[in-house]
Each structure stands twice: as C-alpha cells, then as structure tokens.
Amino acid sequence: QLQLQESGPGLVKPSETLSLTCTVSGDSINSVGYFRGWIRQPPGKGLEWIGNIYYTGTTYYNPSLKSRLTISIDTSKNQFSLRLSSVTAADTAVYYCVVPKPGQFDPWGQGILVTVSS
Amino acid sequence: QSALTQPASVSGSPGQSITISCTGTSSDVGAYKYVSWYRQDPGKAPKLLIYDVSIRPSGVSNRFSGSKSGNTASLTISGLQAEDEADYYCNSFTSSTTYVFGTGTKVTVL
Fold first, then answer.
1. 8-state DSSP, B2
2. Mean pLDDT throughout A48-56?
3. Chain B residue with minimal CA distance to A61?
4. What does the alpha-carbon distance between residue A33 and residue A25 come to, in Å, rounded to a whole number?
5. Which of B20, B22, B98 would you mutate first to test chain A, the one with the most A CBs within 10 A?
6. Which residue in A46, A64, A104 is closest to B103 by CB distance?
7. Nearest to B104 by CA among B43, B46, B32
8. Closest by CA position to B31, among listed B79, B110, B95, B104
9. How many Å from the N-terminal Cα to the C-terminal Cα in chain B?
10. Selection from A94, A73, A65, A62 nearest residue A28 by Cα
11. Residue A102 confidence (pLDDT)
C-alpha cells in the first residue's frame, strides 16, 4: 500500500525559499502512468492545489504560484520535492503531498505545517 | 483560477439526507467527468469520498453519492449520522490542465 511522508523545515523566513520533500514507500516513484503532487491548506482555510508532476518530469502548476514554484522528482531516492521561492506570511499552511490520478487525489501524506515568519 | 463555490455550512438531523453543492463553470465542473469529493476531519488529511462525479472508492459507505448537472456537482449524504460531521471539499479538473478545489462545507449533525 502506498504511503507518503512529508519532511522539511517547519519555519521559513519571509523572502526565503520553502523546500519540502515527500518520501514514497510501497511503490516506485517513477512508476509508469503515475503523477505526484502537492496541495496546501492555510490555517483555518480551504484546500489549494499547488501542482502535479508526471513520472516523466512534466509539471503542471497552479497559475497563481507558477512564477515561484518548482516541483521535481528524485527517482534514485523515491522522493519528489516542492520549492516555493520568495515566501510571505500568505504561504503559511499545512502542505500535503499526494498521489493524483486523473480526477482524484489519493492517498495523501499526513501533512506538514510550514510557518513563514521572521 | 477561482475556487469552486460551496455553501459554508449544511446541517441536518440524524437519519435525514443532506446535499452539498459545488458550483463551477463550463471550463471546469461543466466540462469534465473529473469531479471528486473529500472529507476532512479536524487535524487530519482529507480522504477521497467520490471520484469521476459519482464513483465511490472501495470502503466508502454507499450513504455517500455524487452527481452533476451542468456546472454544478453535488454530494448527497443519506441517513445522516453523527460521525458524518466534518468538512467536505469538492475538486475539479480544469481546461487549463490544472485542478481547483471548492471553498469547503462544514457539515453539522443536529
């Protein structure tokens, strides 16, 4: 059964880059036909789709984040990563890694809270 | 891209049926079968309830059903139970090859 675990700093300073990694167990990160993705949720607010990456490395990003966002895959480590640059307090959120299939997100990681503050 | 519109809250008594609407546009909900629904309990990651408008994953109660008409998708919970109290979110694929979530609905069992 596929399991996902987010990791990374829980505190990032404004204007710096937020970097998170999702480690996948139970399947190969580069399994044919598989997407990987990220979703976030600011405290007390709703869910926001961040972006997906296909096993080939092709990416799909939320237009509102695209200029600051990079999602990548490290097949040797069975991991995929998110980098969000020039963060502000508005980027404070619980970040979830997910396995998207066309039209659905399942499973999800447990989530990691990242706070942007000096 | 704008979030899909859901009612902020929906309530019902045990045993009743409630319906949560999810309104989008002809570029998302109205255009594709890729509408899904998620349940989120406090402090937990969301869980998939419905995908492809009306398909329940294995293990999801048949009290949950989904449908779509035009630009609006709906989630119906029948035989409402206290354990159904949670936040519910819809999601749709869009014509920009992106995804968009709904604003979220808090379900309260009276």
1. P
2. 92
3. B98
4. 17
5. B98
6. A46
7. B46
8. B95
9. 35
10. A73
11. 87
Query: Touching check for A95 and chain B: CB below 8 Å?
Result: no
Dihedral of CA atoms A116, A117, A118, B1 in degrees, nearest 10, equals: 50
Q: How far apart are CA A95 and CA A98, in angstroms?
A: 10
Contact A49 B52 (CB under 8 A): no
Taking the C-alpha atoms of residue A37 and residue A25, their distance in angstroms, rounded to an integer, is 15
Type and span of the H or E element at B100: strand B99-101
Instruction: Tell me which residue of A74, A85, A73, A95 sits closest to A20, measured CA to CA.
Output: A95
Chain A positions touching B101 (Cβ under 8 A) are 39, 46-49
The mean pLDDT values, 10 residues at a time, for chain B of 110 residues are: 95 97 97 97 97 96 97 98 98 95 97
pLDDT for residue A77: 77
Name the amino acid, one letter, at A86: S
pLDDT at A101 over 60: yes
Spatial separation of the C-alpha atoms in residues B67 and B75, rounded to whole Å? 7
Query: For B39, left (φ over 0), alpha (ψ -120 to 50), or beta?
Result: beta
